[in-house]
Amino acid sequence: MDNVFLELPLQFNGLSFKTTSLRDSVNKIVSIVISTPTGSVQCDKDFGTTQLDPEKVLVELGKIKDDLSKTVRIALEKNEPRLDNISVKIQGGQKSEARGTMPLKVRINAVIAATGKEFRLEKTLKEDYYRTPFPGRMG
Asked: Which residues are bridge partners to 108 per DSSP?
């Protein structure tokens, strides 16, 4: 049987806290790490993802995607020790055959260390993800 983890945010039903599975717990923490800018959590200033330069021009989308991949991977390696072999890919952006852009998506592949099972997560990033210095940047 899988270990039982406390569900976040903590919710007390009068007798006990709600619980969740290992996979759901990892999924929740990964989503929180991705959507929290470094420095915004008072009790742990290193928690979250590093904010990218809001002045970076959109023409540099390839560089922005590389920087986002790197900052998300580093943040997960620091803040979610239950994952091994983390890889992060940012997809989307400029459409090749038409005008406009597709939303950026973060794709995370890793291994849950305790079970050896594959972990995958895909999230769409809001347009202002790398420009907004506040939590809540996930779509």
From this structure: 88, 121
CB 121 within 8 A of CB 138: no
List, for residues 122-138, the tens digit of each pLDDT value: 988 765 555 544 444 44
Q: What's this model's pTM, rounded to 2 decimal places?
A: 0.77
Give CA torsion, residues 75, 79, 80, 86, to 10 deg: 20
Contact 49, 36 (CB under 8 A): yes
Rounded Cα distance between 34 and 76, Å, is 8
- 22-69 pLDDT, tens digit per residue, is 999 999 999 889 888 888 888 988 888 877 666 655 556 777 788 889
User: Taking CA 103 as the corner, what is the angle to CA 97 and CA 107, rounded to the nearest 5 degrees?
Assistant: 110
Exposed, middle or buried, 138 (CB in 10 Å: 0-12/13-18/19+)? middle
> Are the beta carbons of 103 and 83 closer than 8 angstroms?
no
Q: Are 134 and 35 within 8 A, CB to CB? A: no
